[in-house]
Amino acid sequence: MQFLFIINPISGNEDKSHLLRMVKAELKTDDKLTIFKTTGENDTEKIQQQLKKENFDRVLVAGGDGTIKLAAEAMGENALPIGILPAGSANGLASDLDLPEQPKKFIPIALYGKTRKIDAININDELGLHISDFGLNAELIKEYESSSLRGKLGYAINSITTLFQSKGPYEFEISTEKESFTKKGIMLALANSKKFGTGAVVNPKGKIDDGIFEVLLFKKLDLFEILKTLNEGKELSSDFVESFPVKEVKIKTQQKVDFQIDGEYCKAISEVNAKILPNKLEIAVRLG
Ligand SMILES: Nc1ncnc2c1ncn2[C@@H]1O[C@H](COP(=O)(O)OP(=O)(O)OP(=O)(O)O)[C@@H](O)[C@H]1O
User: Fold this and answer.
1) N or C, which end of the chain has less CB nearby within 10 Å?
2) Rounded to whole angstroms, how far apart are CA atoms 281 and 259?
3) What's the ipTM?
């Protein structure tokens, strides 16, 4: 098989040379590996050039969700199967697909494993893979990305300050294919899957391949309900979060509100148009 191996050298603050060594050791004699290291600049175009050069069978991605998204956007309509080597700070998509955490286990799956089709969401013409949101969580991510504090402690310290400074609640005008209404909340998420990269199961009904996504309106901070998200399958109270299954939605806010896609801060915006892209990507998920 011919593999294009996209490596994000900076994701997750982690050196990837051991992953490269392990991938090379796992390859079969006739396989061919082309390595592409992202630079953070014009990576989409550079990956597209690589893809044109050879007939690849599969794209391997060592990075976080941002790097998977980059690979998917570069492939566009002619998406090849993707093998994920989770190596970001949170790895939301890998966690949602229940990929193993040890390289010894995920490398054989990424290279030769059976694939599964998953949906994605078109969000203002960007690709969303699992959960994107307006409000509190995006504010947390923005603070974290601009702070010099790293790691879990850094995240916790940033979180506490952001919680006290949050400008919410916000009024969200929501128009789905069935109805239009306005609701207040501290955060509004577009969820293609069940959980955040941190493992919090905020959308127990979410399925990544059902042709729909959920609009989740979080009404208030509720520690008891937040603790429930640590367990898969727990119903969450409708006083905490309301869920609307949709194929398409338009969200508007009076003022600009911070927005993030798959754990990466975008900017403050006041309008989002989102539409499900059924079976958009094919990801290797288990041994054949
Ligand atoms: N060589 C590089 N130098 C600086 N930034 C880079 C480089 N390569 C990629 N990037 C940036 O890395 C980001 C993607 O990171 P990614 O989401 O994969 O990892 P992460 O943030 O550590 O993980 P996660 O999304 O799981 O939290 C993109 O914004 C991309 O522009």
Assistant:
1) C
2) 24
3) 0.94
